[in-house]
Amino acid sequence: AEVEETLKRIQAHRGVVATIVVNAEGIPIRTTLDNSTTVQYAGLLHQLTMKARSTVRDIDPQNDLTFLRIRSKKHEIMVAPDKEYLLIVIQNPCE
Amino acid sequence: HGNPRSGRWEPAGPRPPLAAMFADGTAPGADVESLWRSARTARCEAKSCQTEQISTVETAAQSHTSRDAAVQADQSKDALQDFHQEVQVDYTSLLSFLQRVEDAVIKELNKNWKSRAFDGFEVNWTDQNEAVLCLHTLSYPEAQDQNLQVTSVSWNATGSVVACSYGRLDGGDWSTEKSYVCTWNLDRRGLNPQHPDLVVDVPSSVMCLAFHPSQPALIAGGLFSGELVVWDTSRTEDPVIWRTGMTDDTHTDPVYQVNWLPDTKHGNNSRLLSVSTDGKILVWREEQDGRLALAEGFAMVAQQIPRSTWLKKFTGGEAAVGVTSLSFSHFDHRVFIVGVEGGYSLKCSTAAETLALHPTRSSVPLRAPAELAFSPHGGPVYSVSCSPFHRQVNLFLSCGTDGQVHLHSMLQTQPLISLQLSKKYLFCVRWSPVRPLVFAAASGEGNCNKHFCFIGDVYLFDFEKSSQKPAISIKQAAGECPVYCLEFNIKQTQLLAAGDATGTVKVWQLSSDFTEQGPRELNRLEQLASEITD
């Protein structure tokens, strides 16, 4: 439905390699990758997001994590966190 | 007891006689019934049991027919739906979440696309070493005294042991020379380069070696006599565990290449594949009595090579086509490339059905696997290697005595790139296991400047730096020393072993630019593969 539309819009953006939606327990609920890779990304990034969030809040309890970006040699991983879900987008930036 | 009291106070009333106040007596003891402990027997009952006579019947069963069936789990097409069903998804909250984050994410994606912030920014995680060094120079003096050459090197599954086979590549048609297989464990302290950890005496010249891809102690070798032998280096007594022996099925020419194949049908056992100039490519399986038995086979016969315009003049007829090298595609395990003495490479498939018109008898019917012939070199092809990197358009390299390396795509007969690396023969070419654009080639004897020279070099070619000339050319040794074989170490990717004609194996440590994949390399490889097909 509209969920699929929104995800398709994000996926169709230039350079986007994959899109994954993860719930609060770290279980992927929507993905454009194969099962095993998705599960790997979901588990690892969920943990990293929790760690990043606790880092931000430890430094300043009034602050909170809004966005997480990891840049690697091959691509950029973007995580939009939320109370109940996590949106992971993997993009291959142009060069 | 019994002492008359002389108290300070006196009881009221008439005083009885003193003696009558106290009397000896015994009181019965007081018994307090235990509330919780009661005689066990009050709660227990005696019971007994006895197993009844077990009835037995003797029967025997014998299966006399069997059928091979394979079971394979199919890729689940419902993989996505699988985890949807387990997790209850609240679509309204999911939708509101997505609507909240969509704008931020799109903004970041756009920023990223236009960003120049990271251009040319690279991080060094490992120490950079700039030069190519020779880490070890390994040799076995006894073999060197007999003027034996290193015919093949192989690294084991863990990447810490290198084995080399001694033999002669120019032995001629008949050779009864003994040879050796030596292994050195490079990670051991007290490594003595002149003293191999294990030396196996072999009655015939060993032409090729291959370590098992997952069991670090098994090594297979192909002999000049056409036999295959498998040694177990962990056994000190007699390391030979399997051999083909000389049967009707054995190759009639030297075995130039041996490979381990994963055997998907029979669990974890691997099969051995051997390639020889008698035109046969045979697959062997292990039998209990230490024998290797023929499981399936292919034969290359000139008549059955797919014709192409430049092959018209080839009138081999039923002659066998001598196969010198083989390489399996990393992505489709049924497809393999062979290089033949006639100078061309062929694309073959293990799924081929047509029977080969090979003259020799064989216990298993031999099939003709060739599907496509690629355009030839100016001399026999000595080595082929399939790239482990490019998925769509399988790339492979072939090299031969014309000193050229051809980069082919499996889809077209003309090479994508044809490089004249040197004027000398090229004996071996291998892709780098980490950098998709790098390969190494070993050169040896040949004509340069109008005289025959034997100086051996290892060339490292990097398509990123140049498509015309090698990035580095490593001289194996001063003086005459053609390099016959080389192998990259898959586990320790900065190591390259090269064996030469003087009987030495040199382990080279490559500089970091040969061991770290650049950020755009796979794309460049794909570009390279497609740019000439236009």
UniProtKB/TrEMBL annotation, chain A:
<comment type="similarity">
    <text>Belongs to the GAMAD family.</text>
</comment>
<comment type="function">
    <text>Acts as one of several non-catalytic accessory components of the cytoplasmic dynein 1 complex that are thought to be involved in linking dynein to cargos and to adapter proteins that regulate dynein function. Cytoplasmic dynein 1 acts as a motor for the intracellular retrograde motility of vesicles and organelles along microtubules.</text>
</comment>
<keyword id="KW-0493">Microtubule</keyword>
<keyword id="KW-0206">Cytoskeleton</keyword>
<keyword id="KW-0243">Dynein</keyword>
<dbReference type="GO" id="GO:0007018">
    <property type="term" value="P:microtubule-based movement"/>
</dbReference>
<dbReference type="GO" id="GO:0005868">
    <property type="term" value="C:cytoplasmic dynein complex"/>
</dbReference>
<dbReference type="GO" id="GO:0005874">
    <property type="term" value="C:microtubule"/>
</dbReference>
<dbReference type="InterPro" id="IPR004942">
    <property type="entry name" value="Roadblock/LAMTOR2_dom"/>
</dbReference>
<keyword id="KW-0963">Cytoplasm</keyword>
<keyword id="KW-0505">Motor protein</keyword>
<dbReference type="InterPro" id="IPR016561">
    <property type="entry name" value="DYNLRB1/2"/>
</dbReference>
<feature type="domain" description="Roadblock/LAMTOR2">
    <location>
        <begin position="3"/>
        <end position="91"/>
    </location>
</feature>
<keyword id="KW-0813">Transport</keyword>
<dbReference type="Pfam" id="PF03259">
    <property type="entry name" value="Robl_LC7"/>
</dbReference>
<protein>
    <submittedName>
        <fullName>DLRB2 protein</fullName>
    </submittedName>
</protein>
From TrEMBL, chain B:
<feature type="region of interest" description="Disordered">
    <location>
        <begin position="1"/>
        <end position="25"/>
    </location>
</feature>
<dbReference type="GO" id="GO:0097014">
    <property type="term" value="C:ciliary plasm"/>
</dbReference>
<dbReference type="Pfam" id="PF00400">
    <property type="entry name" value="WD40"/>
</dbReference>
<dbReference type="GO" id="GO:0045504">
    <property type="term" value="F:dynein heavy chain binding"/>
</dbReference>
<keyword id="KW-0963">Cytoplasm</keyword>
<feature type="repeat" description="WD">
    <location>
        <begin position="248"/>
        <end position="284"/>
    </location>
</feature>
<dbReference type="InterPro" id="IPR036322">
    <property type="entry name" value="WD40_repeat_dom_sf"/>
</dbReference>
<keyword id="KW-0853">WD repeat</keyword>
<keyword id="KW-0677">Repeat</keyword>
<dbReference type="InterPro" id="IPR015943">
    <property type="entry name" value="WD40/YVTN_repeat-like_dom_sf"/>
</dbReference>
<dbReference type="InterPro" id="IPR001680">
    <property type="entry name" value="WD40_rpt"/>
</dbReference>
<dbReference type="GO" id="GO:0005868">
    <property type="term" value="C:cytoplasmic dynein complex"/>
</dbReference>
<dbReference type="GO" id="GO:0045503">
    <property type="term" value="F:dynein light chain binding"/>
</dbReference>
<dbReference type="InterPro" id="IPR050687">
    <property type="entry name" value="Dynein_IC"/>
</dbReference>
<dbReference type="GO" id="GO:0042073">
    <property type="term" value="P:intraciliary transport"/>
</dbReference>
<protein>
    <submittedName>
        <fullName>WDR34 protein</fullName>
    </submittedName>
</protein>
